[in-house]
Amino acid sequence: MAEDLKLTQTSKEEKYKELIPQLNALIQGEEDLIANLANVSAGLKEAFQFLWVGFYLVKQDELVLGPFQGPVACTRIQKGKGVCGNSWDKAQTIIVPDVEKFEGHIACSSHSKSEIVIPMIRNQEVVAVLDVDSSELNTFDEVDEKHLSLLLNEINF
Ligand code: SME
């Protein structure tokens, strides 16, 4: 049985350092992918109060909405479309400081102002992307990229 997350830190780096071992402990004890993606989404949302945190899973030739926390979102995204489809296509993390300046950005929520999308890569293939949206501009940087990438590497896909 999981206990409440212990969240005492205030700086971004320290928050990640406190949160990630707790999420790792949760997901290492569970082999079900959906359960683990759901807990990772919930933990990130609770710790950082992001607008939206969730996964899109690669299914055939498109991304399909997976476990998430936040407002309802678009269910399917084509390869190369939006930030998520671009991250999948390029197999690269994309940090968007201002979504209005990203050509082709897909606005699932009018409150989203900045965004980071990180691909999950297994056997050289993107199998899913983690998408995190903020209601403020310029929220994400290499600190988020580093810690979120480490966290994704721990998920058994
Ligand atoms: N903004 C994303 C779409 C997903 S929602 O933000 C949850 C994109 O451009 O791919």
Structure write-up:
- This protein is α+β, with helices and mostly antiparallel strands.
- The mean pLDDT is 96.
- It is globular, with a radius of gyration of 15 Å.
- Strands 3-2-1-6-5-4 form a six-stranded antiparallel beta sheet, with helices on both faces.
- It is built from four helices and six strands, in the order H-H-E-E-E-H-E-E-E-H.
- The protein has a single domain, classed as Beta-Lactamase (2-Layer Sandwich), CATH 3.30.450.40.
- Methionine sulfoxide (SME) binds next to helix 3 and strand 6.
In short:
It contains 4 helices and 6 strands, in the order ααβββαβββα. The model has no long low-confidence stretch (mean pLDDT 96).
Ligand roster: methionine sulfoxide
Number of domains: 1
Helical fraction equals 25-40%
From the coordinates shown, what is the CATH architecture? 2-Layer Sandwich
Which structural class should the secondary elements be placed in?
alpha+beta
Q: Which consecutive residue ranges, at least 5 long each, have pLDDT under 50?
A: none
Cα-atom radius of gyration = 15 Å
User: Strands of the largest sheet, in order across it?
Assistant: 3-2-1-6-5-4
Strand content: 25-35%
Number of strands: 6
CATH topology name, in short, is: Beta-Lactamase
Q: What is the H level of CATH, i.e. the homologous superfamily?
A: GAF domain
H/E order of the elements? Answer: HHEEEHEEEH
Q: For the record, what CATH class applies?
A: Alpha Beta
